[in-house]
Amino acid sequence: MKKIAFFNYTMIATACFLAIFSITLFSCEDEDKDIFNVFELGGFVRFETPFPTVVNIASLAEAANITVTNVLEAPDGNVASYSIEASAMVAGEEYGPVAFGETVTSFPANLTITMSDLASALGFDIADVGFADTFSFTGTAVNDKGIVYKGNDRQTFTEEDGVKGGNNSSDLLDETGYRNAFEFSFAIPCPPNNNPISGDWTIDMTDLFGDGWDGAFVTVEIDGSTTDYTIPATDAATHVFNVPSGTGVLRISYTSGSWEEEHVYTITNPDGVEFGPFGPEPGTCPEYTSP
């Protein structure tokens, strides 16, 4: 008797489950079968060619004539408007962000950035522009449905609020394969040492606390090929690099990290002439050419 009751209970439960499953199945079939395939094109603007991350000049007298040009594209054909904000770090002072240039409403469109236009918009003196100064841009696009797409705001550093803004790391900004026009920038690199002395050059690095350079490093560029040098996790390091005979350009620059008051280094050329010490708190562009 118990077996018959159990069998009946099992049959009833199975029938109920199948009925519920069937209702659910037919209900799903009655609705849109493509519910996971609803896409809309965003408002995307890119450059025709990669935006230059550095603009080389031989002397500061050329800074006033800096001009960067490119072509803006909206590959999806649905951008109603595009505008730019500019900011800069000139002679250690922050400027911006402020609106820069005209609003673009048709594509493709030519983009021209001149140093005189930047100075006028941001309020700095062109005579103050120097090596290692940077100029950054944030783009905003509005698509044909009124949806706004914008790059992250530039970081600002103040005693009151620390760090504000989003990602503007160099690995994003200098990615040549991703020609986005939402976050881009260029810098004036350190001056080159043209036709440098060939042979072995030496960089002697010191960390006054003894725990490495906290993310800081020195970059050596020899005819376009770059190598970074640092102190990994100790109080000192010595690096020797060779400048081959016939080298046209040697360029040395410093990139800061944390605890800059601990970082000191010197540069010695193949003739035994020592330059520095640079630091604590080294500047971006060391002076390492003989008078």
From TrEMBL:
Region named Disordered = 271-291
Residues of the signal peptide: 1-27
Q: Which key words are in the record?
A: Signal
**Protein name per Swiss-Prot or TrEMBL:** Uncharacterized protein
At the highest ranks, the source species' classification is: Bacteria, Pseudomonadati, Bacteroidota, Flavobacteriia, Flavobacteriales
